[in-house]
Amino acid sequence: MDKLEEKIKSIQKNLETELNQIKDLKHLDNIRVLFLGKNGIITNLITKLKNFSSEEKRKFGPQINQLKKESEEKINKSKEKIIKTQAKALNLKKQNFDVTAYNPNRKKGSLHLYSKFIEEIENIFISMGYDIFDGPEVESDFYNFTALNIPQNHPARDMYDTFWLNKQDMLMRTHTSTVQIHAMKTKSTPIAGIVTGRAFRHEAVDASHDIMFYQCEGIFIDKNVTLSNLFSVSKKFLQTFFKKENLDIRIRPGFFPFVEPGIEIDMQCPFCTKGCSVCKKTRWIEVFPGGLIHPNVLKAGGINPEEYSGFAFGFGLTRLAMLKYRINDIRYFHSGKYKFLKQF
Ligand code: DAH
Q1: Once rounded to an integer, what is the mean pLDDT over residues 174-193?
Q2: Would you state the pLDDT for residue 2?
């Protein structure tokens, strides 16, 4: 029977050792089950007690019960200790929480594609001596149409599906050409500048049309300005923008009421030498229209067309961004989609 006493002692010792290594409540529960569970070491010992003689029962019964009681107490104490330590750690963690601490997984913000793109374009024109202009998005009929040689009932108004406002003659500008007139009225000649900004059209939205998009408009007004000035500026801009020194352009006639003559500028496809899907196998891509500013427009801006001439051009900035970065759906620009934005 000495063996049983030894066993009780060894159980006490083992429990002690286990409890000293305890990590958390789950660990503690596993140990409880090991010793006091249905099939636990102590529970089995109690079951065995039944088979003992009455003398043995008298001797060992109280010892085994004591073992059970003590073990339960020890486990409960251990539990309290763990709960206290955990609460203390949590409190400490809260107190010492450093919001500025380095977090390797933090998502970094960056400029929107438009902001980068506008800066890039502005820098190219600034390097050629151009100013950066600005103008309102809410416009009057005069600045958007009449002053640009598109009087009431002119068929060219049909090209622009306009968002008219509740106030008479007021609208959301359908193009940034409006800024031509603001510049002529407020600056003194010679004038060279570009404006980048939003334009609005009441159109059905699809992969290549949105009701709001970005345009860039440029003008140069001085004595003896000719179309060849426009050709060289356009070519230089496109070569720098697409990073192709030898990129060539070609000119086709085009019509816009505010220029005479009007032209369309195409550029050599910067992406291929033999024809690809972007240039639809033609090797040429239509990039933007322009021309010599119509005398009526100069007059509307308060400039004497007998003395001065100028060129103007205007392009869809959004379209150019789509072309450069091969973006196939205009709707991505304002979608706020992180997956799209983080590529730039
Ligand atoms: N404003 C025109 C449009 O949005 C584009 C344009 C064409 C601008 C010819 C010009 C130009 O300055 O000369 O459709």
Answers
A1: 98
A2: 67
Residue with CA closest to ligand 1 atom 13: 290
Q: Is there a domain that residue 151 lies in?
A: yes
1 pLDDT higher than 70: no
My answer on whether 157 and 212 are in the same domain is yes
310 lines ligand 1 (CB under 6 A): no
Do the Cβ atoms of 249 and 268 come closer than 8 Å?
yes
Q: What is the pLDDT of residue 95?
A: 85
Query: 278 C-alpha to center of ligand 1: Å?
Result: 23
Does the beta carbon of 121 lie inside 6 Å of ligand 1? no
Q: What is the pLDDT of residue 267?
A: 97
The rounded distance, in Å, linking the Cα atoms of 144 and 159 is: 12
Q: What's the confidence (pLDDT) of residue 60? A: 86
Provide the sign of the torsion angle of the four alpha carbons 234, 235, 241, 242, taken in this order.
positive
Across residues 154-169, what is the average pLDDT?
93
Enclosing domain of residue 59: 2-101
For residue 218 and ligand 1, the question of a CB distance below 6 A is answered with: no
d(CA 34, CA 39): 8
For residue 186, what is the domain's CATH number? 3.30.930.10
The H or E element that residue 127 is part of is helix 113-127
Q: How far is CA 310 from the centre of its chain?
A: 39
